[in-house]
Description:
The chain is mostly helical. It has helices spanning about 10-25, 35-45, 50-65, 70-75, 75-85, 90-110, 115-120, 125-135, 145-155, 165-170, 180-195, 220-225.
Amino acid sequence: MPETxxxxxxxxxARKINRILAETYPDARCELDFExxxxxxxxxxxxxxxxxxxxxxxxxxxxxxxxxxAAMAAADREHLEKLVQPTxxxxxxxxxxxxLSQALVERYDGQVPARLEELVTLPGVGRKTANVVLGDAFxxxxxxxxxxxxxxxxxxxxxxxxxxxxAEHEVGALFPRKDWVKLSHHLIWHGRRIxxxxxxxxxxxxxxxxxxxxxxxxxxxxxAxxxxRTEGRA
Length: 234
């Protein structure tokens, strides 16, 4: 059966929303600090159930002590746990970081692979983490469906799917592949700053007139402006 093409009016509206968000957030990017694919991979694993700001506060000391997969694979577990403890769930995260580092050394000669199929075989690395690394470290088109992206994609009517993989495919069909990475950043930045899970700042939203969910939060401009964050969640 041939694949169903998305509705052309939805495609036009979706791309217009993305253009407006691009103008609103010209500096939109990954908010995790990193200097290599390995650093981004580890930082993304650590970012689960915490904030990028918290992860950025621990990674300088972490990567100073363990700068590459070989060093991380041989790390003292107790010391590693102490370094990552502020990010929460530190025992599970330590286990993932140790095992993925060992897998990189044993299977990939200490190099982070640049293919989705290989990345998702690493311990603690799911499709969302893999797409972050592919897009921001390797420039490979991918859509990162985190909680912000999924929420906004449903509010905007891009998809009704709650399953991240299905949502990724449905949203991806609305945009050229070359736009996928930036699209992810635009929606994530907007979700962190204006389109909050609770009390979205609808009255201060640059895409309000295009949004089917307009009115879920305060539409009064003054009340909405008080909800706007100038940076990502602390």
